[in-house]
UniProtKB/TrEMBL annotation:
This is Major facilitator superfamily (MFS) profile domain-containing protein. One of its GO terms (cellular component) is membrane. The gene is LOC115960212. It is a multi-pass membrane protein. Keywords: Membrane, Sugar transport, Symport, Transmembrane, Transmembrane helix, Transport. The chain crosses the membrane at residues 21-38, 80-99, 111-130, 169-187, 284-306, 318-342, 349-371, 383-409, 421-445, 451-471. Residues 25-475 form the Major facilitator superfamily (MFS) profile domain. Belongs to the major facilitator superfamily. Sugar transporter (TC 2.A.1.1) family. Signal peptide: none annotated. It is found in: Membrane. Coiled coil: none annotated.
Amino acid sequence: MAVGLAITSEEGQYNAKMTPFVVLSCMIAATGGIIFGYDLGISGGVTSMEPFLKKFFPEVYTKLNEHTKISNYCKFDSQLLTTFTSSLYIAGLVASFFASSVTKAFGRKTSILVGGVAFLAGSALGGAAFNVYMIIFGRILLGFGLGFANQSVPLYLSEMAPPDYRGAINIGFDLCVGLGILFANLINFGTEKIKGGWGWRISLAMAAAPASILTLGAVFLPETPNSLIQNSKDHEKAKLMLQRVRGTNDVQAELDDLIKASSISKAIKHPFKNILQRKYRPQLVMAIAIPFFQQVTGINVISFYAPVLFRTMGLAESASLFSAIVIRAVATVSTITSMLIVDKLGRRALFMIGGVQMFLSQIIIGGLMAAQLGDHGGISKGFATLIIIFICIYVSGFAWSWGPLAWLVPSEIFPLEIRSAGQSITVAVSFLFIFISAQTFLTMLCHFKSGIFFFFGVWVMVMTAFVYLLLPETKNMPIEQMSKVWREHWFWRRIVGEVNEDRNKDAP
């Protein structure tokens, strides 16, 4: 018998309980976020390790240690080094489109399993690499795994979760991203101290640990009721799974909605073409805008270049890695806070609060670096500490707003017939702009210097205004009835409302 906290959504449509079965299934699936976070954290750490640079990127090693006339902001500016970092994300972008077809045809569980296996292969190749080609090919395999995992895991979590707890459960993915980064920073801090200069191999190979958990766990994961209905005519099997997932026998209302959504989905043969239709315009805009804005907050360049940034400020190798650990610990606590309040306070409020917090801290960081860090020499420990404190405030703001919500909101807004395609677009746009950020950040840091924080600060202003004007509140709304929020929104109802009126006129 399922046990848990009984809930009924605010709209009154479905009965559900937060069951141990759902919690355990979502915990296993959410480890897909750990592999993403681990890579974000590990890549920046190893690229600040001198033995790693000496072996694979001797040009950067020479600039860091011998060319004292080179600007502090330009010592890590290397096209080959950025290729190492960014090759993963272009691979993930391509893989996400393949993942869409696999997720729709074979289910969320299969895509999660494929992602885990590919990431395992990439981690093995990275740890054993003896030249730069091996290490970049390993990164491509890692990217292939992340493309599948990031496309399928948020969908899995949103479909398994009861409506009133969907926000908290889905944020579990971003919490795991943060834990993965923290885990990576701790590993880097320890392996950097290994004598002989081979500690970076452990850092790269240890990606196999979370990938193994995800791969083995995926074998035993249940498929979501949504996917069972979409890929099978056996509605009784889907009903039994829905009863187990919701912890109640009273699931007929939700089952009817799932069957209806599935029949619409099966009538659509080309979801990527259909998502361009006017009735899906709000979802398409969000699928592109939200992941784009998430990347131009500047967070990922801080995530995988934090140790590099701290080396730029003149901190020692060990101190820079330790500072990255402190920042990630702050982010993890903030993500947990978001989990606790997102379904009460709502998505829009967290977006707004986080946006203001990020903007103010970025302006202060940019001002401090402009005033205290020149092209040569270092910065005093007092000001370095102050900058790290404001980076913590900035990361905290991101970790309870744009970090988790940029994965949560897209995963809950798509109707079933375009859900897999919509999530693939979200992941592809995310990877595209992570790739662009990774590919350009070191060059931007060299040319913009401290102004790079003002650059990202302006984007935070723009995205906060976008949310205020164009994103409706989605908390507690059942995922298969999400179209209501667009029909009731002051702007989007002009588009989707007219579509519905035209459809009603055409009906017999």
